[in-house]
Amino acid sequence: MAETLLHLVKKASERHIDSVIRDRRHLHMHPELSFEEEATGKYIQSRLQSLGIRYSTGWAEHGVVAEIQGGKPGKQMIALRADMDALPIQEENQVPYCSVNPGVMHACGHDVHTASLLGAAALLQDIRDHFAGTIRLIFQPAEEKLPGGASLLIKQGVLANPVPEGILGQHVHPPLEAGTVGFREGMFMASCDEIYITLKGKGGHGALPHECIDPIMMAAAVLTGLQQVVSRKSDPLVPNVLTFGKIQSKGGANNVIPNEVRLEGTFRTMNEEWRRDAHQWIRTTVNHICASMGGTCDIDIEVGYPFLVNDLALTRSSRQYAAEYLGTENVIPLEPRMTAEDFSYYSQEIPACFYRLGTGNKTKKITSPVHTTTFDIDERAFEISSGLMVFLALRRLGNQ
Length: 400
Ligand code: NI
Prior knowledge:
Structural class: alpha/beta
CATH architecture of the largest domain: 3-Layer(aba) Sandwich
Strand order of the largest sheet: 1-2-4-3-5-16-6-15
Bound molecules: nickel (II) ion
């Protein structure tokens, strides 16, 4: 029996692969920044329309949500999600489908995700008489920018009426070869908060430190002091990163003590309770260090995405279904990463599985990481990107 669905999805996938590649190339040529995905939204609508699939619009502005119900009896629902936005990067690839929008590029593969979900829509519509259950397709804007499209869509009710049994999302991954996918159960990606600290002292002559309050020395003490938060206050079994990528004094010179120093950093972890405690420890530590040196400070913590947890049961079964679809050798176990992704909001609400789609090809030298000017994919990834998503969802809905 299992072969029936497998065969059906694979055949349908072959029929639609050319249009998936066309969609992706079109989207790649016309990238739009977060919360500005107007043309992308319109394009998704026109493609769904041509497939005869009903949809609703106005999800965090340019998002689109559609549902496809199978012809066999079944009440359960699985949601599939793709993000739509591009990055403020000037593309340097020399390809026919290069971005025509200066300074904007699909450098994180969200064009691939959207095109693959459109492909999944086409496949599902094609074989709808043969499966039970409903698939909700979520085309989500603004993954790359706080507060993140996912949080807004959830507030708008994208996980309600009815609540899906689970949600699946995929993300391109250049380190994995096209034709493979990667899974990880449990903790998968980090929460991500932005830390902005302004240290205020009193500037003056570098030779007369006793007449000044030196914010440079405050910065040195704060930077080392804050590492105590992640090394002494945190449970050592909880992953943590506290990185400051920018230190800037306002004025100052080799012999001039400035008035102010600003620090900008990122705090990442994988435990929501500790995350809240850590924010408090960061504030306490900085305040006390500044006070001990006679200075003052402003601390601004911009709360970003939560951590991403892959549901054990859903991820285990998805990995097993992926092995049925691709062969065990093409399903790769992954380690957690301290990068962040707003799919995490869904994972905090309902059982979720976020997996990686192999898009690299070492032989063809397609290895550039995401968020670079030369990121691209091996289009062979489309041989599985839509079909696998459909197969994972339909198997989870009990179809054989
Ligand atoms: Ni991304």
